[in-house]
Amino acid sequence: MTKTEINADQTALGIELGSTRIKAVLIGADYQTIASGEFEWENSFENGLWTYHVEDVWNGLQTAYQKLANEVKVKYRTTLTKVGSIGISAMMHGYLPFDSKGNQLVPFRTWRNTNTEQAAVKLTSLFQFNIPLRWSIAHLYQAILDSEEHIKHLDFLTTLSGYIHWKLTGQKILGIGEASGMFPIDFETGNFNLSMIEQLENLITSFNYEWSLRKVLPTVQKAGTQAGNLTEEGANLLDITGNLKAGIPLCPPEGDAGTGMVATNSVRKSTGNVSAGTSIFAMIVLEKGLSDYYPEIDMVTTPDGKPVAMVHCNNFTSDVNAWMKLFSEIYDILGTKADTEQLFTALFQKAMEADADTGGLVNCSYYSGEPITGLDEGRPLLVRSPDSKLTLSNLMQSLIYSALATLRIGMEILTTKEKVQINYILGHGGFFKTEKVGQQMMANALETPISVMENAGEGGPWGMAVLAAYSVQKKNQSLIDYLHQEVFVTEKIKTINPTAAGIKSFEDYLNRFHSMLEVERVAVDQLK
What EC designation does it have (predicted)? Predict the structure, then answer.
C-alpha cells in the first residue's frame, strides 16, 4: 500500500533546517512517516557573529533528502521521482539579504546573534511593540545604524526557510508564522503591519536608499494555500541524482515555531506547546492580545494567523550536549564506542535519582546571549561549594534544571502578570525522547501538566510535512479542524503532572540560579 501511495503522489515531504540537524520526513496518506533522512551540522562563530555557510545549507539539504530517497528505494523498491507536496521550514528569524541579481550580500546571521540591541530597543520604542534582538527587522535596522556598505544594494530580505523556498520555486513567499518573526504582523489583515512599515520608512528617509521596506520583504501567505511549484532548477538543487521531477506544489515556508504547533496539535486558543532543542520556546495561543508589551515576550502567529505569545530562550541543550560529548570520550579512551542515544537515555534517567537540593550544584547553560535575563553573551558555568555533592545524578539534574530555568522566568510574565489561562502544554523535540524524564522535570519547572504525543521525537519536519499535505488535501477545513479531524484522530497522548516534591526542588534551584546570574554577568565581563 505504501509503494502505491508513493507512486500515486499521495505523500508529503517536510524538510526542516534546525540548529543542529537538517531532517527530511516523507509521510503517507495516513500521516505516518514512510521514510526520513538527516544531516548534522553546527553553526560557527565568525567575525563576531553566529552563522552557517550557504554551501553547508545545500550540502545538508541534499544529504538529508538523498538519505530519505535511498530509504524509500531500499524499503519499498521504488525510485522516488515525485511527491504530492513539499514544505520547507527552518529555524526562525535571522538575516539573509540579497541584491537585485540574487547575490547574497553578507553571511547568514542567525537567530543566535545578540548584536542588535540598539536597533531592537529603538524599534520597540517606535512601534510600542516588542521587537526581539533576533528578528530580521532588528538585524536590518542595526546594519543601517552601523552604516554597513551592503545596505545600499539591498533588494530582497528573507529568512532561511524563505531562501530555500525561493531557490526551489522562484517565489519570494513566507508563511505568516515565519513572517511574524521578521516584522510585526497585523492580526486583522494577516499581513505585515503597514503602519509600522511606514513609521520605519519615515525614520530612515534621510539615508536616501533606493529600496523601500515594503518591497524588500517577502509576500505573506497563510497555511492552506499553495506557494508555487518546484522548478527544474529547484528539483536539481534538492535531488542531485536528477530523479525528482519538477512541478510539485509547495506550501508556504514556515518557521520551526509554527511546525512545532502543528506537530503538537496546538493551534487552538488557550493551548500551548514547548519546542525543546538547541533553543527552547513556548508558544501560547491567546484568547486576546496582551495588555502590554514585554521585552521577554514575542508576539507572533500560528501558521493560520492567530496571535501567539512566544517565550523564546536562546540556550537550551547546547550545554547538555557538550557534557554528553565529554562523557563519550570516556568510552573512546577505553577503546569502545559510545551509543549516543543509549548514553543520553541512561544519563537522563540518572538525573531522576538526584538529591532533593540537586546536591547544591548550580549551572548556567548560556553559550550565547540571553535576552530574557539581559545578557548579551554567554559563558557556560558550573558552580559548587566545597560541601556540594558532585554526583552524576546531581550534575545531570543541574544541567537539565539550568536549561529550564530561563523558560520558567519568561513564562511567569504570562501566567502571573497577564493571567493567561493555559488548558494544556504539549512538548516536542529531542528533549522528550527519554521517556518521562524531560516531561516530568518540565512539568515541575512550569507547574503545569506536560503532554507528549507518540510523534514527539519527529517534531518540526513531520509538522511541516502535515502543512504541505494540508495545502493540497484540505476539504474546506480550517487548520484546526484539519488537524483534529484528519491528522490526530487516533493519536495517543501521555500526560505527566508536576509533583509537590519536584516543584519544591526546582524552586530551590531557581533561587540559586537567580543568584548565579550575577556570577554569569561578571564572567561575561571578565572572561574574554
Answer: 2.7.1.17
Question: What is the reported pLDDT for 270?
Answer: 82
Distance in angstroms (rounded) separating the CA atoms of residues 258 and 295: 21
Query: Which pLDDT does position 106 carry in this prediction?
Result: 97
281 with 414, same domain: the answer is: yes
Q: What are the distances in angstroms from CA 145 to CA 155, 159, 174, 207?
A: 18, 21, 26, 10
Q: Are residues 414 and 402 in the same domain?
A: no
**pTM score of the predicted model:** 0.81
Q: What is the pLDDT of residues 446-464, one digit of tens each?
A: 998 899 886 555 678 999 9
pLDDT-derived band at 340, boundaries 50, 70, 90: confident
How far apart (Å, rounded) are the C-alpha atoms in residues 91 and 251?
A: 17
Mean predicted confidence (pLDDT) in 23-35: 94
What is the DSSP code (8-state) at residue 368?
A: E
Beta bridge partners of 382: 363
CB-CB contact of 467 with 446 (8 Å): no
Question: What are the cell numbers at 438?
Answer: 524531560
Whether residue 296 is found in the same domain as residue 415: yes
SS3 426: strand
Q: Name the CA radius of gyration of the chain, rounded.
A: 22
* Distance separating alpha carbons of residues 506 and 412, to the nearest angstrom: 14
Instruction: Identify whether the C-beta of residue 45 lies closer than 8 Å to the C-beta of residue 4.
Output: no
- Residue 219: count of CB within 10 angstroms of its CB: 14
* SS3 state at 383: strand
Q: In angstroms, rounded to a whole number, what is the distance separating the alpha carbons of residues 330 and 43?
A: 26
Domain-located, residue 272:
yes
- Exposed e or buried b for every residue in 78-100, given b needs 16+ CB within 10 A? eebebbbbbbbbbbbbbbbbbee
Backbone phi, psi, residue 25, to 5°: -130, 130
Contact 406, 315 (CB under 8 A): yes
Give the residue numbers spanning the domain of 366.
Answer: 318-406+500-526
* DSSP state letter for 95: B
Interacting residues of 299 by C-beta distance below 8 A, sequence separation 6+: 129, 130, 180, 184, 289, 290, 293, 307, 308, 309, 310
Model pLDDT, residue 24? 97
* Residue type for position 153: H
DSSP, residue by residue, 182-203: TS-EETTTTEE-HHHHHHHHHH
